[in-house]
Amino acid sequence: MxxxxxxxxxxxxxxxxxxxxxxxxxxxxxxxxxxxQLHSKGEAxxxxxxxxxxxxxxxxxxxxxxxxxxxxxxxxxxxxxxLNEYKADRNEVSIKVKATNYAKYRVQFIGSGxxxxxxxxxxxxxxxxxxxxxxxxxxxxESNGKIAWTQxxxxxx
Length: 157
Hints:
mainly beta
């Protein structure tokens, strides 16, 4: 996962995503492993399996339903944070994290320009949409370094 957080004058992958969303493009965020090796060589930064994935909300476990859900943005990306529930419409975005006893959580509701609109330190949180945010997406940060990102709710001006 080198270079995903940016640096040296280059924006992060998430920063680029926010730029595209702010420009009005509906772009879904996806996580994958980008595996280059299956066995660890003991290096600090390695592209190994199991570092990022998506959770898909499909009607049934068929390839047709899974791909349709991905096409519709009915999924979230994770490096280990699991959600019990996620609801989003043009009025409100709410989330319930599958909390564990060994972690604390920070839930950020993010809008145009990557601006944090609201932040909660509880695993269950909701944001009332005002209509001028451009888009609203959720980022869940776990105290052990794991993260989850939901897809944006795009709000037309």
